[in-house]
Amino acid sequence: MSTGGPSLPQQRNLVTSIPGPESLARLDRKKAHVADGVGTMLPVFVVAAGGGVLVDADGNSLIDLGSGIAVTSVGNAAPSVVSRVQEQVAAFTHSCFMVTPYDGYVDVCEQLAELTPGDHEKKSALFNSGAEAVENAVKIARVATGRDAVAVFDHAYHGRTNLTMAMTAKNMPYKNGFGPFAGEVYRVPMSYPFRDDLSGEEAAKRAIDVMDKQIGADNLACVVIEPIQGEGGFVVPAPGFLPALSAWAKDTGVVFVADEIQTGFCRTGDWFACDDEGVEPDLITLAKGIAGGLPLAAVTGRAELMDAVHVGGLGGTYGGNPVACAAGLGALEEMRSHDLTGRARDIGTRMADRLRKIAADHPVIGDVRGRGAMMAIELTTPGTLSPEPVRTAAVSSYCHQQGVVTLTCGTWGNVVRFLPPLSISDTLLDEALDVVAEAFAATA
Ligand code: PLZ
């Protein structure tokens, strides 16, 4: 068994081509036994990870700019996560919180009340995945308001379950052929500064007009929004957009739900992306970075909304599993003790500077955007808004060949996103960005 964590040598070191022979052999086994629908972007089989690197079955050490899609923000196998999980797993692995409770679950909820935006009274319920958290936020909003409709945005991503597919914008690969989808879900225009010329207030007015005229606030249980969109392309709404929406929701009794599943837990340089403009969501959905890689998710929100649901109305066999909660407590400890909000801001400044320099040399980069350790570049035909998905794939694939794990996203697949673990060193980050620069030169 390989040992990961921050003591792994922090270096990019390729000893074979990517993927190497060992990974290729394992890929054959994957093809034989794993459903084709479960895709793999970069088929190197991981045997250890930590700090800013992933080590594969061939002994290659790759720089991680993906964090398993914004999950291992505290680093893979972070010491506080490992020690708390080991202790918990040896004590007991499961009792089901709905049957016989335990402290870890309550401890996580207590910390979420303290850390999430706003100092109103809050309560939480724990789940296993982001999609499950979003589903439950909608359930809670519907019971609390007695209304049915749900408003979501262009380019939104909320998950792969039936309701959350309906809430997700993009057809391929998430929705195609999987309908019919849940009803009473309405799509509203997003603020997308690179693609519209609207101020935050103007974009909010446009969205509110659609909600007023096409749904009617009286029918609307909740508006669900990612404060910075993730899968949809790291779309950062114009300043003022989120505050205006949240004020409108407050005036009309619509529950304002922030989906911070990708943006949460230090990623953007604050505990939550909503903190940037002082937005206080009524409900917030959380997952990914919350537990250093173990499956844990939450809905945290105003106590009176959370408590609107009848006893027994929220739950699930594994929600808030004790091992996942131990990992969550370990991850929160890492975030506090290593000042990971500050680290995310530093990483953000470093990445933004470098990406702007690369963009200056390569006009195919139409936009550099993001916040903190959540940065992206959008590729378009120079001087236009016409997406360049082929070049985007080529750049990302070049990075993979050179041992840098990059991810793409965006409605048109023309965005390269950067989500390094906050435990990455400056040296490794700079080296990875050198490779990104090379990728643009090599694919020109
Ligand atoms: N809400 C904002 O980013 C998950 C999905 C990757 P789950 N994003 C990565 C993929 O292709 O499946 C996500 C998110 C936002 C909800 C979710 C859903 O979280 O834990 O994947 O269910």
Structure description:
The chain has helices spanning 21-33, 67-70, 79-91, 103-115, 130-145, 162-167, 200-215, 241-252, 303-306, 322-337, 340-361, 389-401, 426-442, and strands at 46-50, 53-56, 61-64, 122-127, 149-153, 185-188, 220-225, 255-259, 283-286, 297-302, 365-371, 374-379, 404-405, 407-409, 415-418. It is of the alpha/beta class and 444 residues long. It has two domains: 21-64 and 339-442, Aspartate Aminotransferase, domain 1, CATH 3.90.1150.10; 81-337, 3-Layer(aba) Sandwich (Aspartate Aminotransferase, domain 2). Strands 4-10-9-8-7-5-6 form a seven-stranded mixed sheet, sandwiched between helices. A four-stranded mixed sheet has the order 1-2-3-13. Strands 11-12-15-14 form a four-stranded antiparallel sheet, with helices on one face. α7 (200-215) packs parallel to α8 (241-252) and α12 crosses α13 (426-442). The protein is globular and about 60 Å long. The two termini are 42 Å apart. 53% of the residues are buried. The mean pLDDT is 98. Ligand PLZ is lined by residues 69, 129-131, 134, 157-160, 226, 230-231, 259, 261-262, 287.
